[in-house]
Amino acid sequence: KFSWVLFVLALGLLIFTKAEDKKAVYNSRTVEQWIADLKDKDWSVRYSAVTALGKIGPKAEKAVPALIEALKDKDYMLRGCAAYALGSIGPKAEKAVPALIEALKDKEVWARTFAAYALGKIGPKAEKAVPALIEALKDKKWEFRYYAAEVLGKIGPGASEAVPALTKALKDDDKKVRSAAKEALKQIQKK
User: Fold this and answer.
1) Residue 88: closest CA among 120, 113, 111
2) What is the pLDDT of residues 138-176, one digit of tens each?
3) Burial zone of 187 (CB within 10 Å; 0-12 exposed, 13-18 middle, 19+ buried)
4) What element of type H or E holds 183?
5) Are 146 and 114 in contact (CB under 8 A)?
6) DSSP assignment of 46-58, as one string?
7) H or E segment to which residue 182 belongs
């Protein structure tokens, strides 16, 4: 027998669940609450906020402007975590590309590396970063060169101007950089 009561309860549960799914929540706090925490004077509060926004991922798209601002934090670890959070948002963080290009010049390798990571997660929409990533292939730190090569591959055919620099990186001192350059060339030259 068909029960209207069960049907209405099930429908209510379905509607409630879908509404919850649309909310961007982490640890019972909304994106807006985490964004507000980015302005706190306490480093640990700001750090928790960038971490939470990174865990929320693409649903934290409205946090992009606040995370761009966090890329300027005085603490390099927080700057790196802000870049990581932007990467977790992915292509929806496209507006952060100019700030991430600037972050590629950070004096701390941690922050530079996560800026590159974020650009890679943004993917082809990060094409404007190609000249800065080509420059990054000359960095002293192998980790940064590795990520620069990897990101150029994730940008794909839009990074074709990087082919000469990546070809040169095939002779890098570091094996991981050489491998990333080889893979990047394959991704850029796909037909």
Assistant:
1) 120
2) 999 999 999 999 999 999 999 999 999 999 999 999 999
3) middle
4) helix 175-188
5) no
6) HHHHHHHHHHHGG
7) helix 175-188
